[in-house]
Automatic annotation (TrEMBL):
Protein name, entry field: Diaminopimelate decarboxylase
Keywords: Amino-acid biosynthesis, Decarboxylase, Lyase, Lysine biosynthesis, Pyridoxal phosphate
Complex formation: Homodimer.
A GO molecular-function annotation: diaminopimelate decarboxylase activity
InterPro entries: Ala_racemase/Decarboxylase_C (IPR009006), DAP_deCOOHase_LysA (IPR002986), De-COase2_N (IPR022644), De-COase2_pyr-phos_BS (IPR022653), Orn/DAP/Arg_de-COase (IPR000183), PLP-binding_barrel (IPR029066)
Compositional bias per record (Polar residues), positions renumbered to this chain: 1-16
EC number, UniProt record: 4.1.1.20
NCBIfam families linked: lysA
Length: 469
Protein backbone atom coordinates (compact mmCIF):
# COMPACT_ATOMS: atom_id res chain seq x y z
CA UNK A 1 0.00 0.00 0.00
CA UNK A 2 1.37 3.44 -0.89
CA UNK A 3 1.29 6.35 1.49
CA UNK A 4 -1.06 8.21 -0.85
CA UNK A 5 -3.76 5.65 -0.18
CA UNK A 6 -6.15 6.94 2.47
CA UNK A 7 -6.15 4.87 5.65
CA UNK A 8 -9.31 3.90 7.49
CA UNK A 9 -10.50 6.88 9.51
CA UNK A 10 -10.83 5.25 12.85
CA UNK A 11 -8.77 5.21 16.06
CA UNK A 12 -6.24 3.12 17.97
CA UNK A 13 -9.14 1.78 19.99
CA UNK A 14 -9.85 -0.69 17.17
CA UNK A 15 -7.00 -2.80 18.54
CA UNK A 16 -9.20 -3.49 21.54
CA UNK A 17 -11.50 -6.31 20.63
CA UNK A 18 -14.88 -5.72 22.29
CA UNK A 19 -15.71 -7.87 23.95
CA UNK A 20 -12.20 -9.25 24.40
CA UNK A 21 -11.90 -12.99 23.93
CA UNK A 22 -11.25 -14.65 27.28
CA UNK A 23 -8.49 -16.62 25.52
CA UNK A 24 -5.44 -14.30 25.53
CA UNK A 25 -4.10 -15.61 22.22
CA UNK A 26 -7.20 -14.35 20.38
CA UNK A 27 -6.63 -10.68 21.26
CA UNK A 28 -4.13 -8.17 19.93
CA UNK A 29 -3.73 -6.50 23.31
CA UNK A 30 -3.38 -7.93 26.82
CA UNK A 31 -6.65 -8.73 28.61
CA UNK A 32 -6.42 -5.72 30.95
CA UNK A 33 -5.91 -3.15 28.17
CA UNK A 34 -8.27 -0.16 28.36
CA UNK A 35 -8.25 3.44 27.16
CA UNK A 36 -8.35 5.86 30.08
CA UNK A 37 -10.13 9.23 30.26
CA UNK A 38 -7.02 10.98 28.87
CA UNK A 39 -7.17 8.80 25.78
CA UNK A 40 -4.10 6.82 26.88
CA UNK A 41 -3.61 3.09 26.69
CA UNK A 42 -3.56 1.49 30.12
CA UNK A 43 -2.31 -2.03 30.79
CA UNK A 44 -2.58 -3.72 34.17
CA UNK A 45 -4.00 -0.47 35.53
CA UNK A 46 -0.88 1.49 34.47
CA UNK A 47 -0.80 4.20 31.84
CA UNK A 48 1.72 3.26 29.17
CA UNK A 49 2.69 6.94 28.89
CA UNK A 50 3.47 7.08 32.61
CA UNK A 51 5.42 3.83 32.42
CA UNK A 52 7.62 5.22 29.67
CA UNK A 53 8.15 8.42 31.67
CA UNK A 54 9.23 6.34 34.66
CA UNK A 55 11.20 3.53 33.02
CA UNK A 56 12.19 5.15 29.70
CA UNK A 57 11.97 3.42 26.31
CA UNK A 58 12.00 1.03 24.57
CA UNK A 59 10.12 -0.82 27.26
CA UNK A 60 8.59 -4.29 27.35
CA UNK A 61 5.35 -4.11 29.37
CA UNK A 62 4.20 -7.51 30.57
CA UNK A 63 0.67 -7.94 31.89
CA UNK A 64 0.61 -10.41 34.77
CA UNK A 65 -3.13 -11.09 34.52
CA UNK A 66 -2.90 -12.17 30.88
CA UNK A 67 -0.02 -14.53 31.53
CA UNK A 68 -1.74 -16.07 34.54
CA UNK A 69 -5.03 -16.41 32.67
CA UNK A 70 -3.36 -18.19 29.77
CA UNK A 71 -1.63 -20.59 32.15
CA UNK A 72 -4.85 -21.31 34.02
CA UNK A 73 -6.80 -21.88 30.82
CA UNK A 74 -4.23 -24.38 29.59
CA UNK A 75 -4.24 -26.32 32.84
CA UNK A 76 -7.99 -26.31 33.27
CA UNK A 77 -8.61 -27.29 29.65
CA UNK A 78 -6.40 -30.37 29.87
CA UNK A 79 -7.89 -31.29 33.23
CA UNK A 80 -11.39 -31.00 31.75
CA UNK A 81 -10.87 -32.70 28.41
CA UNK A 82 -8.26 -35.38 29.07
CA UNK A 83 -9.25 -38.45 31.05
CA UNK A 84 -5.72 -39.11 32.34
CA UNK A 85 -3.15 -36.98 34.19
CA UNK A 86 -1.74 -33.93 32.45
CA UNK A 87 1.02 -31.36 32.88
CA UNK A 88 1.45 -28.09 31.00
CA UNK A 89 5.05 -26.98 30.76
CA UNK A 90 6.18 -23.50 29.70
CA UNK A 91 8.51 -23.41 26.70
CA UNK A 92 10.84 -20.95 28.36
CA UNK A 93 12.62 -20.14 25.09
CA UNK A 94 9.68 -17.79 24.44
CA UNK A 95 10.84 -15.55 27.31
CA UNK A 96 13.20 -16.85 29.96
CA UNK A 97 13.75 -14.64 32.99
CA UNK A 98 13.27 -15.05 36.74
CA UNK A 99 9.92 -13.26 36.99
CA UNK A 100 8.27 -15.09 34.09
CA UNK A 101 9.49 -18.43 35.43
CA UNK A 102 8.17 -17.52 38.90
CA UNK A 103 4.69 -16.69 37.57
CA UNK A 104 4.54 -19.85 35.46
CA UNK A 105 5.64 -21.90 38.47
CA UNK A 106 3.00 -20.33 40.71
CA UNK A 107 0.42 -21.28 38.11
CA UNK A 108 1.45 -24.91 38.34
CA UNK A 109 3.35 -25.13 35.08
CA UNK A 110 6.50 -27.14 34.51
CA UNK A 111 9.35 -26.03 32.25
CA UNK A 112 10.87 -26.84 28.90
CA UNK A 113 14.46 -25.61 28.81
CA UNK A 114 16.82 -25.92 25.86
CA UNK A 115 20.19 -24.82 27.15
CA UNK A 116 22.33 -24.69 30.25
CA UNK A 117 21.41 -21.01 30.50
CA UNK A 118 17.65 -21.64 30.46
CA UNK A 119 18.12 -24.48 32.95
CA UNK A 120 20.14 -22.21 35.25
CA UNK A 121 17.55 -19.40 35.01
CA UNK A 122 14.68 -21.77 35.73
CA UNK A 123 16.37 -23.56 38.63
CA UNK A 124 17.46 -20.22 40.13
CA UNK A 125 13.88 -18.91 40.06
CA UNK A 126 12.42 -22.13 41.48
CA UNK A 127 14.95 -22.23 44.30
CA UNK A 128 14.10 -18.62 45.18
CA UNK A 129 10.46 -19.66 45.32
CA UNK A 130 11.46 -22.32 47.84
CA UNK A 131 10.92 -25.38 45.67
CA UNK A 132 12.77 -28.46 46.87
CA UNK A 133 15.04 -30.58 44.70
CA UNK A 134 12.45 -33.26 44.03
CA UNK A 135 9.87 -30.74 42.79
CA UNK A 136 12.45 -29.07 40.56
CA UNK A 137 13.55 -32.42 39.15
CA UNK A 138 9.99 -33.43 38.38
CA UNK A 139 8.96 -30.26 36.60
CA UNK A 140 11.88 -29.60 34.21
CA UNK A 141 12.36 -31.12 30.74
CA UNK A 142 15.63 -30.48 28.93
CA UNK A 143 15.48 -30.26 25.12
CA UNK A 144 17.95 -29.56 22.35
CA UNK A 145 19.41 -31.17 19.25
CA UNK A 146 23.04 -30.68 20.26
CA UNK A 147 23.33 -30.54 24.02
CA UNK A 148 26.92 -30.34 25.17
CA UNK A 149 28.35 -32.91 27.57
CA UNK A 150 28.47 -30.16 30.17
CA UNK A 151 24.77 -29.39 29.65
CA UNK A 152 23.92 -33.08 29.97
CA UNK A 153 25.89 -33.24 33.20
CA UNK A 154 24.07 -30.17 34.50
CA UNK A 155 20.72 -31.76 33.63
CA UNK A 156 21.74 -34.99 35.38
CA UNK A 157 22.82 -33.01 38.45
CA UNK A 158 19.32 -31.47 38.63
CA UNK A 159 17.82 -34.91 37.90
CA UNK A 160 15.36 -33.45 35.39
CA UNK A 161 14.02 -35.34 32.39
CA UNK A 162 16.21 -35.16 29.30
CA UNK A 163 14.49 -35.26 25.92
CA UNK A 164 16.94 -37.27 23.83
CA UNK A 165 17.20 -36.03 20.27
CA UNK A 166 19.69 -38.33 18.48
CA UNK A 167 22.00 -41.33 18.67
CA UNK A 168 25.11 -39.46 19.75
CA UNK A 169 23.24 -38.00 22.69
CA UNK A 170 21.77 -41.37 23.59
CA UNK A 171 25.19 -43.00 23.65
CA UNK A 172 26.78 -40.14 25.58
CA UNK A 173 23.96 -40.23 28.11
CA UNK A 174 24.16 -43.95 28.64
CA UNK A 175 27.85 -43.52 29.60
CA UNK A 176 27.14 -40.54 31.85
CA UNK A 177 24.18 -42.33 33.41
CA UNK A 178 26.22 -45.45 34.13
CA UNK A 179 28.66 -43.25 36.11
CA UNK A 180 26.03 -41.25 37.92
CA UNK A 181 24.75 -44.11 40.07
CA UNK A 182 21.08 -43.22 39.63
CA UNK A 183 19.02 -43.92 36.52
CA UNK A 184 18.64 -40.91 34.25
CA UNK A 185 15.10 -40.03 33.18
CA UNK A 186 14.77 -39.60 29.45
CA UNK A 187 12.12 -39.15 26.78
CA UNK A 188 12.63 -39.65 23.07
CA UNK A 189 11.95 -36.93 20.54
CA UNK A 190 10.72 -38.14 17.21
CA UNK A 191 10.06 -36.43 13.91
CA UNK A 192 6.47 -37.39 13.21
CA UNK A 193 6.36 -36.41 9.53
CA UNK A 194 3.48 -34.00 9.97
CA UNK A 195 3.26 -30.86 7.84
CA UNK A 196 1.69 -27.72 9.20
CA UNK A 197 1.23 -24.29 7.68
CA UNK A 198 3.65 -21.90 9.25
CA UNK A 199 6.91 -20.17 8.40
CA UNK A 200 9.57 -22.55 7.05
CA UNK A 201 12.00 -21.67 9.88
CA UNK A 202 9.56 -22.47 12.67
CA UNK A 203 8.29 -25.75 11.34
CA UNK A 204 9.92 -28.76 12.95
CA UNK A 205 7.80 -31.88 12.68
CA UNK A 206 8.23 -32.62 8.96
CA UNK A 207 10.68 -35.37 8.11
CA UNK A 208 13.36 -33.04 6.75
CA UNK A 209 14.06 -31.48 10.15
CA UNK A 210 17.20 -31.29 12.26
CA UNK A 211 15.24 -32.37 15.34
CA UNK A 212 14.52 -35.80 16.72
CA UNK A 213 14.77 -39.43 15.66
CA UNK A 214 13.47 -40.41 12.27
CA UNK A 215 10.54 -42.83 12.86
CA UNK A 216 12.31 -45.59 10.97
CA UNK A 217 15.06 -45.49 13.64
CA UNK A 218 12.74 -45.81 16.58
CA UNK A 219 12.58 -49.55 16.95
CA UNK A 220 16.37 -49.72 16.98
CA UNK A 221 16.34 -46.99 19.64
CA UNK A 222 13.77 -48.91 21.71
CA UNK A 223 15.93 -52.04 21.51
CA UNK A 224 19.02 -50.10 22.58
CA UNK A 225 17.32 -48.41 25.53
CA UNK A 226 15.69 -51.61 26.72
CA UNK A 227 19.22 -52.90 27.34
CA UNK A 228 20.37 -49.81 29.28
CA UNK A 229 19.29 -50.10 32.90
CA UNK A 230 20.78 -46.66 33.63
CA UNK A 231 18.35 -45.00 31.20
CA UNK A 232 14.80 -44.77 32.43
CA UNK A 233 12.70 -43.99 29.35
CA UNK A 234 9.56 -42.19 30.52
CA UNK A 235 7.96 -41.39 27.23
CA UNK A 236 7.86 -39.83 23.80
CA UNK A 237 7.91 -36.26 22.56
CA UNK A 238 7.31 -34.38 19.32
CA UNK A 239 6.92 -30.72 18.42
CA UNK A 240 5.63 -29.93 14.95
CA UNK A 241 6.02 -26.18 14.66
CA UNK A 242 4.97 -22.82 15.96
CA UNK A 243 2.29 -20.16 15.25
CA UNK A 244 -0.15 -22.82 14.02
CA UNK A 245 -3.83 -21.98 13.51
CA UNK A 246 -5.11 -25.42 12.55
CA UNK A 247 -6.10 -28.09 15.04
CA UNK A 248 -5.71 -31.03 12.68
CA UNK A 249 -1.88 -31.32 12.85
CA UNK A 250 -1.95 -31.81 16.62
CA UNK A 251 -4.83 -34.26 16.32
CA UNK A 252 -2.77 -36.25 13.82
CA UNK A 253 0.23 -35.97 16.09
CA UNK A 254 -1.72 -37.46 19.00
CA UNK A 255 -2.49 -40.52 16.89
CA UNK A 256 1.10 -40.92 15.63
CA UNK A 257 2.61 -40.56 19.10
CA UNK A 258 0.21 -43.04 20.68
CA UNK A 259 1.00 -45.60 17.97
CA UNK A 260 4.69 -45.33 18.83
CA UNK A 261 3.90 -45.33 22.52
CA UNK A 262 2.05 -48.63 22.14
CA UNK A 263 4.98 -50.03 20.17
CA UNK A 264 7.47 -48.85 22.82
CA UNK A 265 5.52 -50.64 25.53
CA UNK A 266 6.00 -53.91 23.69
CA UNK A 267 9.77 -53.44 24.16
CA UNK A 268 9.22 -53.38 27.92
CA UNK A 269 10.00 -49.67 28.26
CA UNK A 270 8.48 -47.99 31.34
CA UNK A 271 6.65 -45.40 29.21
CA UNK A 272 4.12 -43.22 30.99
CA UNK A 273 4.34 -39.72 29.48
CA UNK A 274 3.46 -38.30 26.09
CA UNK A 275 4.53 -34.79 25.14
CA UNK A 276 2.80 -33.16 22.17
CA UNK A 277 4.98 -30.01 22.13
CA UNK A 278 3.62 -26.50 21.73
CA UNK A 279 2.69 -24.48 18.68
CA UNK A 280 -0.68 -22.79 19.18
CA UNK A 281 -0.71 -19.47 17.31
CA UNK A 282 -1.66 -16.01 18.52
CA UNK A 283 -3.17 -12.89 16.91
CA UNK A 284 -0.56 -10.51 15.57
CA UNK A 285 -3.13 -8.87 13.26
CA UNK A 286 -6.92 -8.80 13.00
CA UNK A 287 -6.84 -11.41 10.26
CA UNK A 288 -5.09 -14.01 12.42
CA UNK A 289 -7.60 -16.57 13.59
CA UNK A 290 -6.14 -19.08 16.04
CA UNK A 291 -8.37 -21.43 18.03
CA UNK A 292 -8.74 -20.57 21.69
CA UNK A 293 -6.47 -22.24 24.23
CA UNK A 294 -9.36 -24.44 25.30
CA UNK A 295 -10.30 -25.42 21.74
CA UNK A 296 -6.71 -26.37 20.98
CA UNK A 297 -6.20 -28.29 24.21
CA UNK A 298 -9.50 -30.08 23.80
CA UNK A 299 -8.68 -31.19 20.24
CA UNK A 300 -5.25 -32.47 21.23
CA UNK A 301 -6.46 -34.14 24.43
CA UNK A 302 -9.33 -35.94 22.76
CA UNK A 303 -7.19 -37.24 19.93
CA UNK A 304 -4.67 -38.70 22.39
CA UNK A 305 -7.42 -40.23 24.52
CA UNK A 306 -9.16 -41.69 21.47
CA UNK A 307 -5.92 -43.16 20.14
CA UNK A 308 -5.17 -44.68 23.57
CA UNK A 309 -8.61 -46.31 23.61
CA UNK A 310 -8.06 -47.56 20.09
CA UNK A 311 -4.62 -49.06 20.83
CA UNK A 312 -5.71 -50.23 24.23
CA UNK A 313 -2.95 -48.47 26.15
CA UNK A 314 -3.38 -46.76 29.54
CA UNK A 315 -3.68 -42.97 29.34
CA UNK A 316 -0.17 -41.56 29.68
CA UNK A 317 0.53 -38.30 31.48
CA UNK A 318 -0.21 -35.84 28.67
CA UNK A 319 2.29 -32.99 28.46
CA UNK A 320 1.92 -29.88 26.31
CA UNK A 321 4.64 -27.26 26.12
CA UNK A 322 3.31 -23.95 24.80
CA UNK A 323 5.43 -20.81 24.75
CA UNK A 324 4.04 -18.16 22.42
CA UNK A 325 0.39 -18.61 23.40
CA UNK A 326 1.25 -18.27 27.10
CA UNK A 327 3.32 -15.11 27.02
CA UNK A 328 3.01 -13.62 23.53
CA UNK A 329 -0.24 -11.68 23.89
CA UNK A 330 0.60 -10.57 27.43
CA UNK A 331 3.15 -7.96 26.39
CA UNK A 332 3.50 -4.78 24.33
CA UNK A 333 6.69 -2.90 23.53
CA UNK A 334 6.57 0.87 23.96
CA UNK A 335 8.88 3.18 21.99
CA UNK A 336 9.31 6.93 21.68
CA UNK A 337 8.69 8.33 18.23
CA UNK A 338 11.60 10.28 16.76
CA UNK A 339 11.87 11.91 13.37
CA UNK A 340 10.09 11.31 10.11
CA UNK A 341 11.19 11.03 6.53
CA UNK A 342 8.73 11.66 3.73
CA UNK A 343 9.57 10.14 0.38
CA UNK A 344 7.05 12.00 -1.78
CA UNK A 345 4.44 9.77 -3.42
CA UNK A 346 6.14 6.67 -2.06
CA UNK A 347 6.23 6.36 1.69
CA UNK A 348 6.44 8.16 5.00
CA UNK A 349 8.79 6.70 7.58
CA UNK A 350 8.60 7.45 11.25
CA UNK A 351 11.49 6.27 13.38
CA UNK A 352 11.38 4.84 16.88
CA UNK A 353 14.11 4.39 19.49
CA UNK A 354 14.44 0.60 19.17
CA UNK A 355 13.99 -1.88 16.34
CA UNK A 356 15.46 -5.16 15.18
CA UNK A 357 17.58 -5.50 18.32
CA UNK A 358 14.52 -5.69 20.60
CA UNK A 359 12.22 -7.31 18.02
CA UNK A 360 14.09 -9.32 15.38
CA UNK A 361 10.93 -11.10 14.18
CA UNK A 362 9.96 -8.76 11.31
CA UNK A 363 13.40 -8.93 9.72
CA UNK A 364 13.81 -12.63 10.43
CA UNK A 365 10.39 -14.02 9.55
CA UNK A 366 8.66 -11.07 7.83
CA UNK A 367 6.31 -11.03 10.81
CA UNK A 368 3.55 -8.44 10.73
CA UNK A 369 2.58 -6.47 13.84
CA UNK A 370 -0.03 -3.95 14.90
CA UNK A 371 0.80 -0.58 16.42
CA UNK A 372 -0.94 2.34 18.12
CA UNK A 373 0.01 5.68 19.67
CA UNK A 374 -0.44 4.88 23.35
CA UNK A 375 -0.80 8.53 24.36
CA UNK A 376 -3.43 9.28 21.69
CA UNK A 377 -5.61 6.20 21.42
CA UNK A 378 -8.74 8.18 20.48
CA UNK A 379 -7.12 10.32 17.80
CA UNK A 380 -8.19 9.64 14.25
CA UNK A 381 -5.90 7.60 12.10
CA UNK A 382 -4.96 10.24 9.59
CA UNK A 383 -1.94 8.91 7.75
CA UNK A 384 -0.26 5.73 6.62
CA UNK A 385 3.31 5.34 7.78
CA UNK A 386 6.07 2.78 7.98
CA UNK A 387 7.62 2.39 11.41
CA UNK A 388 11.40 2.15 11.16
CA UNK A 389 13.82 1.09 13.85
CA UNK A 390 17.03 2.98 14.60
CA UNK A 391 19.52 0.39 13.40
CA UNK A 392 21.94 0.93 10.56
CA UNK A 393 20.18 -1.45 8.27
CA UNK A 394 17.48 -0.69 5.67
CA UNK A 395 15.60 -3.86 6.60
CA UNK A 396 15.15 -2.62 10.15
CA UNK A 397 11.45 -1.92 9.71
CA UNK A 398 9.11 -2.85 12.53
CA UNK A 399 5.81 -2.40 10.70
CA UNK A 400 5.06 -1.43 7.11
CA UNK A 401 2.24 0.83 5.94
CA UNK A 402 0.11 1.19 9.05
CA UNK A 403 -2.55 3.76 9.80
CA UNK A 404 -1.74 6.10 12.70
CA UNK A 405 -2.64 9.56 13.90
CA UNK A 406 -0.04 12.07 12.62
CA UNK A 407 2.80 11.04 14.93
CA UNK A 408 4.96 13.73 16.53
CA UNK A 409 8.40 13.30 18.07
CA UNK A 410 7.91 12.17 21.66
CA UNK A 411 4.66 10.31 21.01
CA UNK A 412 4.59 6.82 22.45
CA UNK A 413 4.15 4.03 19.97
CA UNK A 414 3.27 0.53 21.11
CA UNK A 415 3.76 -2.64 19.13
CA UNK A 416 1.36 -5.33 20.35
CA UNK A 417 1.84 -9.03 21.09
CA UNK A 418 5.60 -8.88 21.70
CA UNK A 419 5.85 -11.22 24.68
CA UNK A 420 7.15 -14.24 22.81
CA UNK A 421 10.52 -14.48 21.09
CA UNK A 422 11.24 -10.75 21.36
CA UNK A 423 13.26 -10.31 24.55
CA UNK A 424 14.53 -13.88 24.17
CA UNK A 425 15.89 -13.18 20.68
CA UNK A 426 16.98 -9.60 21.40
CA UNK A 427 20.56 -8.61 20.61
CA UNK A 428 22.97 -5.78 21.17
CA UNK A 429 23.26 -4.99 17.47
CA UNK A 430 24.84 -1.56 16.99
CA UNK A 431 25.67 -1.77 20.69
CA UNK A 432 22.18 -0.89 21.80
CA UNK A 433 21.47 -2.07 25.33
CA UNK A 434 18.55 -4.44 25.62
CA UNK A 435 15.39 -2.70 26.89
CA UNK A 436 14.01 -2.87 30.40
CA UNK A 437 10.88 -4.92 31.12
CA UNK A 438 8.18 -4.16 33.67
CA UNK A 439 5.51 -6.40 35.07
CA UNK A 440 2.20 -4.61 35.53
CA UNK A 441 -0.71 -5.63 37.71
CA UNK A 442 -3.53 -3.68 39.34
CA UNK A 443 -1.88 -0.31 38.94
CA UNK A 444 1.53 -1.47 40.13
CA UNK A 445 4.60 -1.75 37.92
CA UNK A 446 7.70 -3.70 38.91
CA UNK A 447 10.95 -3.86 37.04
CA UNK A 448 11.68 -7.44 35.98
CA UNK A 449 14.61 -6.77 33.66
CA UNK A 450 16.90 -3.82 33.98
CA UNK A 451 17.80 -1.79 30.94
CA UNK A 452 21.31 -2.65 29.81
CA UNK A 453 23.74 0.18 30.35
CA UNK A 454 26.91 1.10 28.48
CA UNK A 455 28.83 -0.57 31.32
CA UNK A 456 26.84 -3.77 30.75
CA UNK A 457 27.84 -3.61 27.11
CA UNK A 458 31.51 -3.63 28.06
CA UNK A 459 31.17 -6.36 30.67
CA UNK A 460 32.30 -9.17 28.37
CA UNK A 461 34.95 -7.16 26.54
CA UNK A 462 38.61 -7.92 27.16
CA UNK A 463 41.39 -5.66 26.02
CA UNK A 464 44.66 -7.65 25.87
CA UNK A 465 47.56 -5.75 27.42
CA UNK A 466 49.66 -6.00 24.30
CA UNK A 467 47.16 -3.86 22.44
CA UNK A 468 47.80 -1.07 24.89
CA UNK A 469 51.54 -0.82 24.31
N1 LIG B 1 8.58 -27.23 22.28
C1 LIG B 1 9.62 -27.26 21.45
C2 LIG B 1 10.45 -28.45 21.38
C3 LIG B 1 9.91 -26.14 20.64
O1 LIG B 1 10.92 -26.19 19.81
C4 LIG B 1 9.08 -25.00 20.74
C5 LIG B 1 9.36 -23.81 19.94
C6 LIG B 1 8.02 -25.00 21.65
C7 LIG B 1 7.79 -26.14 22.41
C8 LIG B 1 7.12 -23.82 21.85
O2 LIG B 1 6.41 -23.52 20.70
P1 LIG B 1 5.31 -22.34 20.76
O3 LIG B 1 4.20 -22.77 21.66
O4 LIG B 1 5.99 -21.12 21.28
O5 LIG B 1 4.89 -22.20 19.35
N2 LIG B 1 11.56 -17.82 17.18
C9 LIG B 1 10.38 -18.21 16.47
C10 LIG B 1 9.70 -19.38 17.14
C11 LIG B 1 10.57 -20.58 17.25
C12 LIG B 1 9.90 -21.69 17.99
C13 LIG B 1 10.90 -22.67 18.43
N3 LIG B 1 10.36 -23.77 19.15
C14 LIG B 1 9.43 -17.03 16.35
O6 LIG B 1 9.77 -15.94 16.80
O7 LIG B 1 8.36 -17.15 15.78
Amino acid sequence: MLSTEMPRTTTGSTLLKTPASPSPNQNLLPLTAVINKNGELEIGGCSVTALVEQFSSPLYILDETTLRQAAQQYRQSFQTHYPGPSQVIYASKAWSCLAVVAIAAQEGLGFDVVSGGELFTTVSALKQLGWDEAEIAEKIYFHGNNKSVQELQEAIAVNCTIIVDNWLELETLSKLAANSGEPVKIMLRLTPGIECHTHEYIKTGHLDSKFGFDPNQLEAVFTYIAEQPALHCLGLHAHIGSQIFERQPHQDLGEVLVQWFAKGLTYGLPLKELNIGGGLGICYTESDDPPSIEEWAQAAALSVAKACDHHNVPYPKLIAEPGRSLVGSACVTAYRVGGRKVVPNIRTYIAVDGGMSDNPRPITYQSVYRVALANRMNDELSETVTVAGKHCESGDILVKDVALPAAEPGDILVVTATGAYNYSMASNYNRLGRPAAVLVSQGEANLILQRETYTDLLRQDCLPNRLLS
